[in-house]
Design goal:
Blueprint (H helix, E strand, L loop, with lengths): L9 E9 L4 H14 L3 E6 L3 E3 L10 E10 L3 H14 L15 E7 L4 E2 L4 E2 L8 H10 L12 H7 L7 E3 L2
Antiparallel strand pairs: 1-4, 1-5, 2-4, 3-4, 3-8, 6-7
Length: about 170
C-alpha cells in the first residue's frame, strides 16, 4: 500500500533498542513493523550490540541495532508509525525518561532534512554523542553524512570519548 500523499521515496536511518524481556525479539518486531504497513522497505541492517545504558544508568543493558529504510512517508508520518509500532510492542511512554523500555525507535537522519518541531528534531539531537547509535550506523554505511556537522558517522564515532558507553557485539 502506498501513501498517496507522498509519492517520492526518502531514505532514513532508524535506531532500534530494547532492554526489557526478549530484547532481540522486540527489536525484530520493530524492524518487521516498519515494513508491515507497506510504506517503507528496509535496505540495510546493522549487527546487534549489547550496550550500557546512557543517561539513566540504573537499568539493564540494552540490545541496539539500526536500519536504513526507503520510505514514502514524510518525517512526521514516519514518527507516528514508529510510535504505533512501539506501542504495539508494549512500550509505555509514561515511565522514566531514558528508562527501561520494551522497544525504542528513533529517526536519526531523514534524507538531509533539518527539522525541529515539538515532537521531532532531525537529525536526532544526541546521535553524535552516542556510541550505541553510531556503531550500528557504521555497520550499514560508515560514510553516512551528518547533515549538521557535515562529518561521516565514522568520524563522529571516532570522536566519542566516553568510557561509560560500553558496547559489545551481541553473540
Amino acid at each position: 500500500m502506498v501513501n498517496p500523499a507522498v509519492s517520492e521515496k526518502h531514505r532514513a536511518w532508524i535506531s532500534i533498542g530494547s532492554n526489557m524481556g526478549d530484547k532481540i525479539g522486540h527489536c525484530r518486531i520493530g524492524m518487521k513493523g516498519l515494513e508491515a504497513s507497506g510504506h517503507s522497505v528496509i535496505t540495510g541492517v546493522s549487527r546487534f550490540y549489547r550496550t550500557a545504558p546512557v543517561d539513566y544508568t540504573d537499568q539493564e543493558w540494552f540490545v541496539n541495532a539500526a536500519v536504513q529504510i526507503e520510505t514514502r512517508l514524510d518525517p512526521c508520518a514516519l514518527l507516528k508509525e514508529i510510535h504505533a509500532i512501539e506501542k504495539g510492542a508494549g512500550r509505555d511512554r509514561a515511565g522514566v525518561r531514558f528508562g527501561p523500555r520494551t522497544l525504542d525507535m528513533d529517526i536519526l537522519i531523514f534524507d538531509q532534512v533539518l527539522l525541529k518541531t515539538s515532537e521531532l528534531t532531525l537529525p536526532h539531537p544526541r546521535m553524535h554523542k552516542r556510541r550505541f547509535v553510531l556503531q550500528p550506523l557504521c555497520d550499514i554505511d560508515p560514510t553516512i553524512l551528518h547533515p549538521v556537522f557535515e562529518k561521516t558517522v565514522q568520524e563522529l564515532l571516532n570522536a566519542v570519548d566516553d568510557s561509560d558507553q560500553e558496547l559489545v557485539l551481541y553473540q
